[in-house]
Write a structure and sequence with these properties.
The structure is a homodimer of 356-residue chains. Chain A is α/β, with parallel strands linked by helices and 356 residues long. The first copy, chain A, has helices at 8-15, 19-27, 34-47, 54-61, 75-80, 82-97, 113-118, 135-142, 165-177, 212-227, 245-257, 270-283, 300-305, 314-325; strands at residues 66-71, 101-106, 124-128, 147-150, 159-162, 183-187, 197-200, 236-239, 264-267, 292-294, 309-311, 334-335, 339-341. Chain A is 42% helix and 15% strand.
Chain lengths: 356, 356
DNA sequence: CTGTTAGCGCTTTCAT
DNA sequence: ATGAAAGCGCTAACAG
């Protein structure tokens, strides 16, 4: 049997119809008589023809029916992040419903990232987790195809989807730091190098934090810390290389065993916060009496651990990105909903407690 | 500025060269004089031309330079599984190195799954986590493009990559069940319905377990249980809907609190085994004295928890699948390496201990 | 090093 | 309901 080497024209020939009738059989079955359709399908079966070639279709239609998702990370990191998984499943749901495929474009950091954008036949792009000045952003703009950035940076020519991270960080930070004497932050990486370690507020100025999401959250925590009477310079910021409970546990153990034991830790992810909870339990530190903990994302984990956290739907944001690229949504920025969910990892009514 | 609407022909015209010179400028720069190249690039810049159109290229070259990865799951499940992440990162590494993109094709379970295969312009397919008789498998074969299945089912016309799950399960099962009086198994789902719950051996006959990996592992555990003097009918098999520590913890707590408390649990994933360890700690059950635990995959988690486990490299297997689709590897099945790593979650020298 | 020709396989457009 | 013509944008093959 010919391994699908047959063309639509050959199928038409064998069926004794014109190429157009064969084409309609696959694309507009309702426009073809029952009889012609049967002949075409029979001929196709005989020739082992599995359907119109997608590459030729793409060229002719001017559309590949594919959306490119640019992951600003090595794939191993991207898939380790539950947030990325949720986001992608939102993207995939919308794309599948519209008959679109999803092409993954991991960033290598090398100079050929931009070329990879141009060499992809996707009809549009969604960019996840990137940094200020990423050449990929201008490549997407230059490609002339629609693009959305999730979480920033805001880019001329691209739509932006995300939440107001600074506002959310401020609000959850107010809860975390209420009544605290030594607030601390457990942060995502500041840049692509993903260097873990402890810094203090001043090292987190905007210019040094190219990841927009991380930067905005740090800014929000800073506002909260100040509102609770602390100088940002005194706030310890422990950076984790990834959104991983085990790494966070080690970092938290180190903080909690040190000379200036924090009594409040605001973490940028529920995974990180979960690690803090484990470290606290191991060290006999009571939550929330001795230590307030907050997370981010309101994942399953947060519910189980009764974590105070920021609730947002990354799946919905992924869907919004896909809607935009597919043109179903207006081409404007989309600021998604978020709320702070207060649970047992912070003191009740902490938001309303007076500062120390 | 024209949003990349210009064609290569127009660029050539403006540069005063033939289309082929323009084409060579992008595809074989070394064949073009410095001067011509400069003229072409200048014209391209003026016209906002970002490079040759990928859709036209794909048609002309007969290749989209893209590999399709079929995930036999809803995307949210697939990305929650650390094994899938490792596998995909192996696929992506090889593809990126070869200049290929990766298109994700989540299975919906609906009748249009096969059509989605045909409508994708990928040059070949990698199928992850599917079940016996999945129509997707015959669709891949019918597409006439190369295909590999990871973990089975073995399919005429497709290559197969994976480990000998039955042999590995047997070997790790011998360690887990050494000296045990009441061995139990914590299993992955038996089929796509992902029904969680407790069954016994007889309900795990091949005919009822369409997931080949799960089926083969159950078979291996059965062999091990019998070798340790147990009837498979007496072995409790607790099925988890997903490879998730929290779900496993609940399942294990239920088993360990019940009337026939197991003293050995072989789990099909390190995440599941981690949940068992947590349940044991909570209930004051000592590992390995009161309970032997084994996992699968030798993940970071396994090392941290000192789990006896099956070590395999899913990233390497993903790479092997990609190599095959890209034609770099011989078109034959690839049985990957595995070993059982013994750690503290089972008794020392358990493999050599006499049966009870 | 550069150019000419031809056509990848399909579907839009417009007729019948 | 069916068909004829045209060409999507590019590059393989083969000159020069």
């Amino acid at each position: 049997m010919n391994r699908s080497r047959a063309t639509l024209g050959e199928v038409a020939g064998r069926a004794g119809v014109s190429p157009m009738t064969a084409s309609y059989t696959y694309n507009r079955p309702e426009r073809v008589s029952e009889e012609a359709r049967a002949k075409v399908l029979a001929a196709a079966a005989e020739l082992g023809y599995a359907g119109p070639d997608a590459k030729a279709r793409s060229l002719r239609r001017g559309s590949s029916r594919t959306v490119g998702v640019v992951l600003g990370e090595q794939l191993s990191y991207a898939f380790e992040d539950p947030g990325a998984a949720a986001f992608l499943s939102g993207v995939a749901r919308v794309c599948a419903a519209a008959g679109y495929g999803v092409t993954i474009l991991p960033i290598t950091g090398a100079a050929d990232d931009a070329r990879r954008i141009h060499e992809t036949s996707a009809d549009g792009f969604i960019v996840w987790t990137t940094v200020d000045g990423d050449p990929v952003l201008s490549a997407v703009v230059a490609s002339g195809r629609p693009g959305v950035v999730h979480g920033g940076p805001a880019t001329e020519g691209l739509a932006l989807v995300g939440i107001d991270d600074a506002a959310a960080a401020r609000q959850v930070g107010l809860v975390a730091f209420a009544g605290a004497r030594r607030p601390a932050v457990l942060s995502f990486p500041l840049d692509r190098r993903r260097i873990a370690g402890v810094v203090r507020g001043p090292a987190t100025t905007a210019a040094r934090v190219p990841f927009p999401v991380t930067r905005d959250r740090l800014r929000g925590y800073r506002t909260a810390a100040r509102a609770r009477g602390h100088s940002w310079s005194d706030v310890v910021v422990s950076v984790c290389a990834r959104n991983d409970a085990d790494e966070a546990e080690r970092a938290a153990r180190s903080l909690l065993s040190g000379p200036h034991r924090p009594d409040a830790i605001a973490a940028m992810g529920d995974e990180l916060a979960g690690g803090v909870m484990r470290a606290a339990r191991t060290l006999g530190v009571r939550v929330p009496q001795d230590l307030a903990v907050t997370g981010w994302d309101d994942s399953r984990r947060a519910r189980e651990l009764k974590l105070t956290t920021v609730a947002q739907s990354l799946a919905e944001q992924g869907a919004a990105c896909a809607d935009f690229v597919l043109g179903a949504e207006p081409a404007r920025d989309f600021s998604a909903a978020w709320t702070v969910v207060e649970r047992g990892s912070t003191a009740a009514n902490a938001a309303r407690r007076p500062r120390t």
